[in-house]
Structure formats: C-alpha cells, structure tokens
Amino acid sequence: MHHKLSELVAELINNDIDLQFAKKELESTYIREILKRHNGNIGLSAKALGMHRNTLSKRIKDLKIPHLKPEV
C-alpha cells in the first residue's frame, strides 16, 4: 500500500498538482467511496470514517459531494 501511495504522490508532483488540491481530491474521493459502501447512509458512513454525522454532513457540503440516495 505504501508503495502505491508513493507512486501516486510522485505522479501528482510530476504533474504540478499542488498539495491543497491533492488533499481535497483525496478526501472527496474517500468520502464518496465510503458513502457508496454504506448506500448513502450518513450515520453509517460517519461511523466508518470515525467522525460525527454532523461533521460528515458539513464536509459533504463543503466538498460539494452530490447526495447519494440510499437504496431501498
């Protein structure tokens, strides 16, 4: 895992991607994947991320992540 991450970071640096953009994209992608795994359930996703559901809701809003409707 560490090796893959190092390769990704090297690629970002080689493409002149700044740290702020890289962090925002990583966080956004990570949250989207957790939401998918929990079918859009904010409570379960927040628990998986180790944060309060209100904090996750704020991050989703700040990062402009589209709302994932839970599957019924």
Automatic annotation (TrEMBL):
It comes from Sulfidibacter corallicola. InterPro entries: Homeodomain-like_sf, HTH_Fis. GO terms for molecular function: sequence-specific DNA binding. This is Helix-turn-helix domain-containing protein. It comes from the Bacteria. SUPFAM superfamilies: Homeodomain-like. Residues 25-62 form the DNA binding HTH domain.
